[in-house]
Amino acid sequence: MIETHVEHAEPKDVWAAISAERQVLVIDVRTREEWTFVGLPSLPERRLALIEWQTYPSMAVADDFAERALGAIDAVGAEAVFFLCRSGVRSLHAALAVRAAAEEAGRDLRCVNVTGGFEGDPTPQGQRGQVNGWKAQGLPWRQS
Asked: Which has the least CB within 10 A, 53, 72, 111, 118?
């Protein structure tokens, strides 16, 4: 019986791991629209993979997500993988799916959900990027 679990980390801890470890990958699971209009983490080369968990506008989960994620992980030889979305919910499901696929294949893969995600929780006024998450913690990011 497979007992799938993932770790959880704050965005600042992800940045520290990226700075200290060579075998780390961040998989941003948001939609193409979010990457384009909201922004992306600014990370060193080959430390960020963009793989949609769901595709806008249907928001159907990508059937091949785990397969594509494992391919990206293998391409850089990552031993630890951090999953990032807007607020930490989609990324948790994505991390669980990849962890389960890895376990099913007999692999031990460290999968970590980034709590607070890229934009974090909304303020009482409904604005994101100020309470928690990658942007609120002042980590490097860019917008196209």
From this structure: 72
Q: Please determine, for residue 32, whether its predicted confidence score (pLDDT) is greater than 50.
A: yes
Residue showing tokens 């309470």:
131
Q: Which bin fits 80, alpha (ψ -120 to 50), beta or left (φ > 0)?
A: beta
pLDDT 10s digits, 111-132: 999 999 999 999 999 999 999 9
d(CA 51, CA 28): 6
Two tokens, residue 136: 């609120």
Q: Which tokens sit at 129? A: 């990027």
DSSP 21-70: -SSEEEEE-S-HHHHHHT-EE---TTSEEE--SEETTTTEEPTTHHHHHH
Phi, psi (deg, nearest 5) at residue 43: -125, 160
User: Counting Cβ atoms within 10 Å, is residue 50 exposed (0-12), middle (13-18) or buried (19+)?
Assistant: middle
Residue 10 CB: number of other CB atoms within 10 A?
16
